[in-house]
Amino acid sequence: MSYHYVLPEISESGKIGCSLPALDVPPTELPPKQLLRQELELPEVSEVELMRYFTALSKLNYGVDTGFYPLGSCTMKYNPKWHEDIARLAGFASIHPLQPEESVQGALQLMFELEEYLTEITGTHATSLVPIAGAHGEFTGLLLVKAYHQDRGDKARKKILLTDSSHGTNPASAVMCGFEIGVVASDGEGNVDMKDLESAMNEEVAALTLTMPTTLGLFDPKILEIGQLVHERGGLLGADGANLNALLGQVKFGELGYDYVQLNLHKTFSTPHGGGGPGSGPVCVKENLADFLPSPLVTKNKGMYKFVSPTKSIGRVANFWGNFGVMCKAYAYIRSLGAEGLKEVSENAVLNANYLKEKLKPYYYLSYDRICMHEVVFSGRRQKAKGVHTVDIAKRLLDYGLHPPTVYFPLVVDEALMIEPTETESKQTLDAFVEAMKEIARDVEENPEVLHTAPHSTPVRRLDDVRAARNPDLRWHMRS
Ligand SMILES: *Cc1c(COP(=O)(O)O)cnc(C)c1O
Questions:
Q1: Ligand 1 centroid, distance to 33 Cα (angstroms)
Q2: Is the peptide bond between 410 and the residue preceding it cis, with omega within 30 degrees of 0?
Q3: Ligand 1 atom nearest to CA at 75
Q4: I want to staple 166 with a disulfide (CB 3.0 to 4.6 A). Which of 8, 162, 314, 446 is the partner?
Q5: Where are the domains of the chain?
Q6: Residue 164 and residue 190: Cα distance in Å, rounded?
Q7: Any ligand 1 atom below 6 A from CB of 135
Q8: Has domain 81-337 been given CATH number 1.10.287.180?
Q9: How far is the C-alpha of 380 from the C-alpha of 441, rounded, in Å?
């Protein structure tokens, strides 16, 4: 490891890394000695050493801008830098959330039009931009479900049905809303098991949350039938639309029978993500849920844009108006691509995933051998039989300078490897990934030890995840 990473080791007493401006206030005495922390030995380095230290640290980061990042259910795609410039325009970035509406008409217009675009893209009736994450959008959608049933005086519906491939946030959001959970099984093809849904769908069920494509990366061809059954029995159908990369411009949730869907602007619509935000999880709803949407929505009246609250609104779900900067980037993305461009996004995303599926199929077990959507789920069970686990494959990919796919999720696939290449990757990049995966499959047969001890070329070797989680050591200690 480069010495630049270890600041205290290049520290030498008397080195100074910055020159402070001349004092322009009267000097004051330091507090009494017993209040000063003698043991806090700060490193003393020169300016150039400090610069090298931070630059070296920054190079430890791995991101979409440094390499391929095929993390399934995450859509780690390239986000045009120009959209950041748009979000930073003074008229967007320097306004205050409490400014009078007349003075921020441009920002309101952007929100109004974004609401309209997302409503159109999802084939729904109205959109709230307020929720600030995907899970928060799920939570908001479920609050709408609750309000809808309460408004009709239907008090028995206290359960949310989910599928066994669901994203972990789906049950968490339902429980946060005070619902009970019921799980519907997948059938042998990775679709909803209709018999299981038939028996589970009773008068206690408020809604079925069904990601489409499912978290197995598959489109369920029985979706219209599923919606019909749920509605006939008085329930609602909600989509976790966090990953819209397969459907964008192809098919609309509203036309598939959904009552509402939450989107992740920070996955599909040009905001980089990971590291905890900022995000945006708009909720798009059909007419039956529109009156309950959180406040505020933006409307246009006589050429003026205004915030309004729907008649039976569930109230506020976030401070102010949501994450406005993320909305600016989504708006720029939609406007710069246009309807045709959005359609091309999903075509290429699906093409790239199917390309990887076909190329890797001879080497890794494919649980559901059919056309996939924006991502493909393999199982490492062949490799497991040779004593190599999916985690070893993931760690070995790091030696190739590649970020591993999502592993051990969805839970219904043994030793899952969930690969989402996204539309922004070239054939060369996909081919390099395929080559790495092929070499790894060969090493499983011929040299499994190299997998068990991977990674070898990273600044830190394999970490003990369990110990790190149980006994986190988050404070820097001076080496003695
Ligand atoms: C990412 C994701 C979520 C959660 O989104 P957050 O913004 O992280 O809360 C929910 N569902 C699916 C399917 C996802 O991929």
A1: 51
A2: yes
A3: 15
A4: 162
A5: 7-58, 81-337, 347-470
A6: 10
A7: yes
A8: no
A9: 10
Between the CA of 426 and the centroid of ligand 1 the distance, in Å, is 25
Does the beta carbon of 73 lie inside 6 Å of ligand 1?
A: yes
Q: Where are the beta strands (DSSP E) in 91-193?
A: 126-128, 159-163, 180-184
Do 390 and 383 touch, CB atoms closer than 8 A? yes
Task: Answer whether 253's CB lies under 8 Å from 241's CB.
Answer: yes
Ligand 1 pocket test, pick from 167, 243, 247, 373 with the greatest ligand atom count within 8 Å of Cβ, gives 167
- The alpha carbon of 165 and the centre of ligand 1 are apart by a number of angstroms equal to 13
Q: In what order do the strands lie in the sheet with 236-241?
A: 126-128, 283-285, 260-263, 236-241, 205-209, 159-163, 180-184
Q: Could you read off the pLDDT of 376-399 as tens digits, one per residue? A: 999 999 999 999 999 999 999 999
Give the integer Cα–Cα distance in Å for 357 and 434.
Answer: 10
**Chain centroid offset of residue 184 CA:** 24
Give the number of residues written for the chain: 480
Domain 347-470 has CATH 3.40.640.10: no
Q: How many CB atoms lie within 10 A of CB 262?
A: 30
- Confidence (pLDDT) at 364: 98
pTM, whole model, 2 decimals?
0.91
